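This is your field. Please look over both lines of this record.
***
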Amino acid sequence: MLAAVTGRTAAQRLAAFLLALARAASPHHKQPASRFDLVLTRGEIAALLGVTIETVSRQLTKLEKDRVIRRERARGIRVEDAARLATLAS
C-alpha cells in the first residue's frame, strides 16, 4: 500500500484506497464491488495513507458531493461511479 500512495495527492491516495477495498470486496476482484464496509476508522485510514483525519473526512465528503461514492450507515460505502473513482486514483 505504501508504494501505491507514495508521491500522490491526498485525494489520489484515498481514491486508490477505496478502489482497492472495493476490488477486495468483489468476488471477481477485477471489477470493484458496488458496496462494502470500511473496516478501519478514519484515524486508521489517515495513518495508513499519511494524511490527517480531517483530510480523510474532507476527501470523503468531496467524493460524496461529486457523486463518486455514497456513505451508508456508519461504515458503509456505495461506489456510485467506479470509472471515475479509478480515474481519481491514478
Remarks:
- Helices lie at 2-5, 10-25, 42-49, 53-65, 82-89.
